Amino acid sequence: MSETPILTMPPGFLWGVATAAHQNEGGNENNQWSAWERRPGHIHAGQTCGQATDWWNLETAAADFDRAAALGLNSLRLSVEWSRIEPEPGLFDHAVLRHYAEMIRLLRERGLEPMVTLHHFTDPLWFGAQGAWEGDLAEDFFAGFVAQVVEALGDQVTLWCTINEPTVYAYSGFLEGTFPPGVTNLRRALSVLRRMILAHGRAYRTIHRLQSHARVGLAHHWRVMLPRDPGRRADRRAAATLNRLANTAVIEATLTGQLKPPLGVGQRVTRLMDTCDFIGLNYYSPARVGFDPSAPGSLFMHQGFDPSAELSDPTPTGEAYGEIDPTGLYLALRQLSDFGKPIYITENGVPDHDDDVRPRFVATHLAEAWRAARDGADLRGYYHWTLVDNFEWAAGWSLRFGLYDLDPDSGLRTARPSAAVYARIARANGVPQDLLEEVVPGFVKGYQSEPRLADQPTRAILEETGP
Ligand code: FCB
Questions:
Q1: What is the value of pTM for the model shown?
Q2: What is the Cα–Cα distance from 387 to 197, expressed in whole angstroms?
Q3: Is 219:161 a contact under the CB 8 Å cutoff?
Q4: 377 DSSP β-pair partners
Q5: Which ligand 1 atom is the nearest neighbour of the CA of 401?
Q6: CA 25, 58, 165 angle in degrees (round to 5)?
Q7: From the alpha carbon of 23, which atom of ligand 1 is closest?
């Protein structure tokens, strides 16, 4: 069958997979997550990260890089583990930095352009002892570490992600309490978030001082806020408010330097201005937001999933994670394109052990990404989360996000059908018509006439929630 890409991405588009040090390397014992895993009651079924996918072993990593290259990918996002590189404050392990340099050489050798994340949820234990992101020296510590990494890897890496999902780190660790340190305190959550954004700005300048041609951004978990009842003005306003608080405030801070609520009271921080070469978008699922007069504690807003909502792609997953909504990706990209910066989708994926949902998930989300690019988003790349099943934080090994299934006992990898689907897309530099027809019968037809997915509400939401 001929592959006819109807939804072609621009030349040079990066097709990748996203990973993270703690979730893949194994044996990271010197960070706050491993300490958290050792204490009972924190991780699903008492599981631990253990050897993860064994990537600290370069032979295993190289074999997985072979898999990524064989899928036709040309990029891979990974993170470096601060606690390995700087096991004690100010003490940098150059053997570890050389190990990472070798890991990156293995990627490049296979035609995989590295995107390196400098902080992906894990902090060295010593950093925690200094107050972590609440400590006065947090920005200095992080910048010192970043400088060492750029010195060591800068000859091979130009695409940098400073911090992964500051809002999720702050929310899960300091408000919801499901991530370490397990705190539930809004004031502390906001102070951590603000500090991380400031540290991003400092890291941006550190990287550019050492590498003028670097491209630097942060990976933001952009939660698409949909009104629970699109016909109800109060719900639309609640969704728009939450969008400003959880999404646009973060991106705007890195562009204008202004700390709008909840990051601050509108003060401008010069050193944060223009610290965004690209926007990293992590998109999984939307939230349904309703106005709730009985909930002053949550600013009169209720946020959650609506199982009865009419979904743009109503395919339930066996693994509870959230709504599957490819149109949400379109919305996120359109909202982000207003900022006028290049965008990389730095994460997108679904937990699906049986892979009964992922093939169409990949195809429909990329079709929607294409539609957003057609409509003006400057989209440069897509990183699927993830290549091989890995350690999913508080959910342990219960959520399987891999294009490859992993048997953690034997280390055996088995390609899921979605790996071949993604490979066809990456090789065609777009979503082939035949493929869409196969995985989502009827989908293409909709694309040939008017975009099939809920365009009326989309326009209304864009108007209401635009930055
Ligand atoms: C994101 C995280 C990533 C992974 C995916 C499923 O929020 O950045 O590490 O856990 O979710």
A1: 0.94
A2: 28
A3: yes
A4: none
A5: 6
A6: 35
A7: 9
294 Cα to the center of ligand 1, angstroms? 32
Per-residue pLDDT of the chain (467 residues; tens, 9 = 90+): 455 667 899 999 999 999 999 999 999 999 999 999 999 999 999 999 999 999 999 999 999 999 999 999 999 999 999 999 999 999 999 999 999 999 999 999 999 999 999 999 999 999 999 999 999 999 999 999 999 999 999 999 999 999 999 999 999 999 999 999 999 999 999 999 999 999 999 999 999 999 999 999 999 999 999 888 888 999 999 999 999 999 999 999 999 999 999 999 999 999 999 999 999 999 998 888 888 877 766 666 666 654 444 444 444 444 567 788 888 999 999 999 999 999 999 999 999 999 998 999 999 999 999 989 999 999 999 999 999 999 999 999 999 999 999 998 899 999 999 999 999 999 999 999 889 889 888 776 655 544 444 444 555 566 665 54
Which residues have a Cβ under 8 Å from the Cβ of 36 and sit 6 or more positions away?
42, 43, 179, 180, 181, 182
Q: Phi-psi region for residue 262, left (φ > 0), alpha (ψ -120 to 50) or beta?
A: alpha
Mutate which of 23, 347, 350, 358 to test ligand 1's pocket (most atoms within 8 Å of Cβ)? Answer: 347
| Angstrom distances, CA of residue 158 to CA of 32, 71, 84, 214, 466 | 28, 23, 22, 5, 31
Pocket of ligand 1 (CB under 6 A): 20, 23, 164-165, 168, 221, 282, 347, 385, 392-393, 401
Q: Which residue has the tokens 């703690």?
A: 22
Per-residue HEC secondary structure of the chain comes to: CCCCEEEECCCCCEEEEECCHHHHCCCCCCEHHHHHHHCCCCCHHHCCCCCCCCCCCHHHHHHHHHHHHHCCCCEEEEECCHHHHCCECCECCHHHHHHHHHHHHHHHHCCCEEEEEEECCCCEHHHHHCCHHHCCCHHHHHHHHHHHHHHHHCCCCCEEEEEECHHHHHHHHHCCCCCCCCCCCHHHHHHHHHHHHHHHHHHHHHHHHHCCCCEEEEEEECCCEEECCCCCHHHHHHHHHHHHHHHHHHHHHHHHCEECCCCCCCEECHHHCCCCCCEEEECCCCEEEEECCCCHHHCCEEEECCCCCCCCCCCCCCCCCCCCCHHHHHHHHHHHHCCCCCEEEEECCCCCCCCCCHHHHHHHHHHHHHHHHHCCCCEEEEEECCCECCCCHHHCCCCCCCCEEECCCCCCEEECHHHHHHHHHHHHCEEEHHHHHHHCCCHHHHHHCCCCCCHHHHHHHHHHHCC
